[in-house]
Structures are given as C-alpha cells and as structure tokens.
Amino acid sequence: MRHLSATQVARLVDVDPAARPYYRALADGVRALIMDGQIPVRVRMPAERHLAETLGVSRTTVTSAYDLLRERGYLDSRQGSGSWTTLPDPATTRENPWLSTGDDGLIQLHCAAPPAPSALREAMAEALDDLPRYGMGNGYDPMGLPVLRERVAARYTERGLATRPDQIVVTTGSQHAIQLVAGLLIGPGDPVMVESPTYPHAIDVARQHGARIVPFGISHEGWQPDLMAATMRQSAARLAYLMPDFHNPTGALMDDATRAAVAGAARRNDVILLVDETWSELALDDVPRTAPMAAFDTDSRVISIGSASKLWWGGLRIGWIRTTAALARRLARHRAVVDISSPVMEQLVTARLFERMAQTRAERLRGLRASRDALTAALARHLPEWTYTLPRGGGTLWVRLNGDTSTTLADAAVSHGVRLAPGPWFGLEGTLEGYLRLPFTLPPETVADAVARIARARVQGPTGARRHPDSLVPMV
Q1: Is residue 392 part of a domain?
Q2: How far is it, in rounded angstroms, from Cα 424 to Cα 443?
Q3: What total of structural domains would you count in the chain?
Q4: Which helix (H) or strand (E) holds 77?
Q5: In a domain, 192, yes or no
Q6: In this predicted model, what pLDDT tens digit does every residue of 282-307 receive, in sequence order?
Q7: Between the CA atoms of 252, 253, 259 and 265, what dihedral angle is there, to the nearest 10 degrees?
Q8: pTM for this predicted structure
Q9: Peptide bond into 469 cis (omega under 30)
Q10: Which domain holds residue 196?
C-alpha cells in the first residue's frame, strides 16, 4: 500500500463527532492506527481538503490535525509530494512510542539509556523472517549466533583491530559480560582496580565475587598512566576495569598514547585489562580517532566488552566479549552457571541493526547532541554555579555541585518528579557527594524540564519548604 484515500481513512478512524477539540481527537485516532499497524508507515495520507469533505468538517480542522501529527513526528510533509506517515524520531521528540518514564511517573534522569532507534521496527520484522531458519535447532549457542559474531568481529576489524568470529562471545548485555569475565578470572580477596568515579555495576560485580576493590582517580581530563602503573604495582591487582571511550560518568576519552602506556603497564605488572567500550561509537564532536585498547595489546591481556544498549536499545539485552579464541571458549563454557545462551530473536535483531550502523548512529548522534545542548542551556539558565567539562561524546555530564550534596538533592528531586543518580553511586564508601551525573539521553524538552525541576528542588527541598539563603552559596 502506497497511499490511503479519504474514504479509507474515514472508515478506519473512529472519532466521536462531539469530541472537543475535534482536530486533536482526529490526530489521536490517526496516531493510534499508526502505532497499531493498521495504517502502515511510509504511506501517503489523503489531501487535507479531501479528508475534510469526507469527514464533513472544515479544512482548518484537518489541517490542525495534520499539523499536530507532524509536530508529534507521525507525518512527514514535503511540498509537492503530500503527507506521509512515519514514526517519531526517537532521538529528538518527547512524543516517542519507545520511550517510557517508568512506572512511578518520574523523569528517569538516573539512567543513561536512550530510546530505541526508528530502524528497530524494521530490523525486528526482518529478524522475525530470519527466525524460522533457526527453529530447527535447540536455540542454545553459548558462543552466540555465528551471524552476530561475524558482524561484531567485522566491526572491530573496521576499527583497526583484526578480529575473527571465534574471538567473540555474545552475552545478555554488557553487565552480563562483566559478570562472566569476573566469575572466571577473579576470586575472593583478589585485588581489582576500578576507576573512581566508575560504572556502578562494575563495583557491584567485584563486591559480589569478594574482590578487594582498589580505586584510582580520574577526572574530566582523563587518566594519569604513571599513577595507574603505580597502583598496579603496589596493589598487585589481578584485573583492572576501564572505560576509555567516553567514560561513564565523566565523558573523558583516553588518547592513543595513554592507551599504549596503560597497556604497557598492565603487561609489566601482569594485570588483565577489562575494557568497557559501551559508548565507543558515540563521538558527538570531531575528536582524534583512537584505536581500540586491544590494538595495543601484545600478550592477550586485554578483554574488550561492548553492548547494543547505547548505540541501539537497552531492551535488546545483547552485549559481547572480544578476547582470544581460547578464552572465548572458556567463557562460553563458564556461562552455564549463569545462563546457557542469549535470546535468539534479540541476536538476530542486533545483527540486522549492524547492517544499519551508519543510519542508526547518525540518528543517535543527532539526538544526543540536541539533548546535550538542551541540558547545558538549562544548566546555564537555572544552575549557573554548577560546573562541568563538556564531554565530546557519550551520554553523560559529570557535574560539580559547588556546595550542594548530591544525595540530599536526589532525595528532594523525587518530590519534584525527577529521579537522579547522586555522585556516591559511582564511587566507594560515600565519596563523590559533591558530584551529580546528568545524562542527556532523554529528549531535549524532557532534559530541560528535569533541570528546571532540579533547580526548584534545590531551593524548596523535598517538602516544598524554602531553604535558608545561606545554603545556596556555592563553596569556594
């Protein structure tokens, strides 16, 4: 189907003639039909005049409904070619079929997770067509489907790191990847180095395995390789967890010279590097091209992990590990204590999304840039005393609060409709209270609204009582 007539649309749309305003009810009806698949995407809608005549309403009413659908992202109109049904760009609009604010109704600013790309629906449809070919087997492949391992290996090779599919293990997300590596390689009492601040779940995994956690500090400017080398030597670390590509939460990017130095220090001190590349594809600005950390590895001690969650969608729950073929086989055998294999359908969808890498990355970058701009503009307007270094990639801002306490602020923000991630989540033993992680993975207007709410929470507190003015003076 390439177009719908006015008669067909009128028959499909069930709008109460008494609904007020009628144009909004009409737009809501068309939107519901698109979301239900009854009106397909990329179908030309009837001209406004023809639909108005068929419905028995004014042309202004239909024009207003079409305008609202365009604003929400469900119509795309071009001069001379009419209006075509589409789905909202998940990157830039609040009116988003994939976006959830959570069951509690709060703006989920504690989670740096973007919505799904518009290509997801098409990739899912193609994966569903692929699925019967896999139904003759038992559905269990501890290494992961060959088609997806081939895509992941090819992407590493494109990035300058020659990789074979037998070096890839597909996991059920990056958290599962960290869990598998830690479960195989570390035990109670083993020293494990982590950045401070760092990804909170990496700390959770180390604690779960009884490791002795050894933090080393980083800043917006990045890593100090000499301090890292000293920490490796003095702690006798067994493993070090790093996020060199648009670090979560600081957004820092490790340059190639530092990568080489860190890999060399790990070699001299017999430390395994577990390198989280979850954000590696999301450079928002022109930055010097960096090689994967494993490109500087000369003795197979760098284990890389990646994920579909940031580039595409966390709901896919697909990640991967890149390592030696021998260790990949060991990890696949070890995963039996956690699970047997990752879901086949999600793997097929992710394989199809790899075929749309350029398209989906462009969409994701467009959205992240727009939301980053909205976030920094809102901070400048509402909270100018807070400071940060603008990240050149990734999806988070690491903000210094200059006098506020992030845990107290997070408690107050809940009553103003925002859930926050306070600094101590990303550190050890109550440190980092002066920091707050603010993601820019939600639509721009949502991010701006959240900052305005945070500013109110900062002044009014959790009960609406105004704070004493002295408490608003930033710490020098």
Answers
A1: yes
A2: 26
A3: 3
A4: strand 75-78
A5: yes
A6: 999 999 999 999 999 999 999 999 99
A7: 0
A8: 0.78
A9: no
A10: 121-355
